[in-house]
Amino acid sequence: MSQMIQLDPVAALMLAIIVALWVAAAVASIIMGLRRDVIAKTRARDIERQGALLASAPAVPFRVGLDGRIGADPRLAHWLGLPVPPATINDMAGQGVAGQDGGGISVVDAEGLAADIAAANQAGRPFERVLRLAGTDRVLLARGRPSPPAIGDGVIVWLFDNTEAERTIARLSAEGQAVSDALDSCLALIEAAPFPMWHRGPDLKLALVNSAYVAAVEGESAEEVVTNGVELVDSADGRAPRATALAARDSGRIKTHVVPVTLGGQRRTMRIVDVPMGEHGVAGYAFDIQDLEQTRGELGRFQEAQRELFDRLSAGVAQFGPDRNLIFCNQPFLQFFSLLPEWMSDHPEFDRVLERMRETQRLPEARDFPGWKAERRAWFNAVDAVEENWTIPGGQHLRVVAQPLPNGGLLLFFEDRTEQVQLSSARDTLLRVRAATFENLFEAIGVFASDGRLHIWNQSFRDIWGLSEADLAQNLRVDAMVELVAAKLADPSRAQLLRDLVRIATVDRQARTGRMALADGRYFDFAVVPLPDGNALFTLLDITASRGIEEALRGRADALEEADKLKTAFVANMSYELRVPLTSIAGFAELLDGGYAGELPAIAQEYVKAILASVGRLGSLVEDVLDLTQGAAGNLPLSEEQVDMGVLLTGAVAAARPAAEGKPLQLLVDVEPGLGEIRGDPRRLRQIADHLLNNAIAYTPPQGRVTIRVHGDDDMIVWVVSDTGPGMDAAQRAGIFDAYPRIDASNDEGKQLIGIGLPLTRQLVEAHGGSIALESEPGRGTTVTIHLPRRHGEHGHA
């Protein structure tokens, strides 16, 4: 159909308008669609960004509707350790979840969360709850509040992973509790401290004091002391303690000072310590160092006394401090090692001292001196004292003692042992000589120890007793030895004497001697002597041969004694026999001299007078011989009278003067006036005077001098008779007082004299309790001194 449709213009206009409107609407729709598409894409991008932001958030939200259903992000299952997101609160505890074998919150937490959600729905208030995942240490924090109307009814809950926070809180709680406990302990320690402690606040006022502080300042309580600001240290204005605390706070360093403090009415020395604590103020404490100061003073005095003592020692002493520097040395140390005091005053180090000692060649030779020095340096760290012996050039021996000190120092002692070493060597030589001497002695020697054991012996000792080597090797005891040697003695019962002798010497420390006979006929003199070391020396001397000689000599002595008695009796009898003819001769001579036989010629009268003089001299000699014989026999008779010595000596001098003048001689007399009396025999005392004077006159040549001096005191009278004669030599002096007469000299006329006067004089002097002494030298004369007591005991009978 090709027929064209023709439209009415109005219709066409309407159609055109409709088409235009449609096109415009279409265009507008397209534009609006495009705009909406842009907005949708923009919003999608925003939602995507917000989803990503929500996915990266440290929390997971979920909504719990009024019906208890949960709308949640899939991450909630991962957070709870569940395989699928939970649909209800019970599912969060793993209840009703298929395939659940762990994870989820605890049932108790689930019930509590459900209760919180129900309360939020009803009351519209937020809540927080800590949830712990079962089987793990993870902790979640649930924060919930009613959901906004735009989302719908129910509750929005945000889960936060609070594990690290809980751990941090637990750790901080534990640390806080530990700090609290430490603070309580510290406060308890401060309170229990036996010395004052305190704390000052930032204003340096007292903020805390302990009980010791309160007691020290005699306060009533800590609060009262703090309130009143009672200071421990005496101060007129109270600023001195604060000043020291201020110095500590400003310097940031601990300040210590020693001050006197009055405690309990007593003055004590305290060490005050201020410890800065930054912005928290200053702490302080005080120690009573009164005893410490006294101890320090005593220690100082002890060290001074010790060093004075070291200075007086003959051993060298050197002391090194903990830094190994020399702090003291005495004079012997300087002398031992040839060190100068000026150099030692610089307190040299230990190694330098050793090096200087080596330079002076006063150290032992060492090939490796550094190693040797390092070994000696180890003395400082030794536990016990170290002792060494040094042999230094020149042959000197030193004993070195290194004593480590508690403070880390070292004290050295150097003792010169050269003399001891020499003595030890000499002792060893002496011991060898002694051993050799013992073996070669003729005597038998045995030394018994204090316990009675035979300690040392020689071959002679072993042979005498017949002891075996086995017996001697076990240091035979004297008890056992007695049993072995009893058969060797002539009298076996006396064997116990050996044990007694050893005991007396070792225990009683007494010496004993004696003689013993052996069964084989030998005789021994024994001696047991205590030794200084507590041992006993037992010696045996074989006197078998000498015993025979002794017996022969004893027989001869007995014969001589008997002959002497016969001689004495013969001389006494002869003296009495001689008196009879002498008396007859004297009588007839006196008759002839008296003219009874008629007038005699002159020559006959001279002969008669010579006969009378000879008879008188012979009678005097006979009397002297008789007296001498009786004195030797102990039978000299003496009387006891009071004798005026002045009168007696005057008479004796007068009797001797004619003989002195006839030589001629000079006779000098010096008798103390008022000499007084003496108790004795006047005739015998006169004999003493006569013999002394006659002997001196007889031996003095013409023109010589005889002097007699007599003086006395209350107890004693002293006679001194001296002459200028020829004197005597030693041999003559030795026998001048022999008891028997002898012809020993000649007078000036060449006639020999019988030396009977001085022996008789000695007997008479000793009979009166006195003493006589003679001094003489050839060519210097002779001096006889007699001491006679004024009173003496009975020596004879009248």
Structure description:
The chain is built from 24 helices and 29 strands. The longest helix is centred in the C-terminal third of the chain and has 51 residues. The protein is rod-shaped and about 265 Å long. It has 798 residues and is α+β, with helices and mostly antiparallel strands. Helix 19 runs antiparallel to helix 20 and helix 21 packs parallel to helix 22. A hairpin with a 5-residue loop joins strand 9 and strand 10. It folds into six domains: 105 residues, 2-Layer Sandwich (Beta-Lactamase); 96 residues, Beta-Lactamase (2-Layer Sandwich); 129 residues, Beta-Lactamase; 102 residues, 2-Layer Sandwich (Beta-Lactamase); 67 residues, no CATH class; 154 residues, Histidine kinase-like ATPase, C-terminal domain (Heat Shock Protein 90, 2-Layer Sandwich). The N and C termini lie far apart (231 Å). The strands form seven sheets. It has a five-stranded antiparallel beta sheet with strand order 2-1-5-4-3, with helices on both faces. The C terminus is likely disordered.
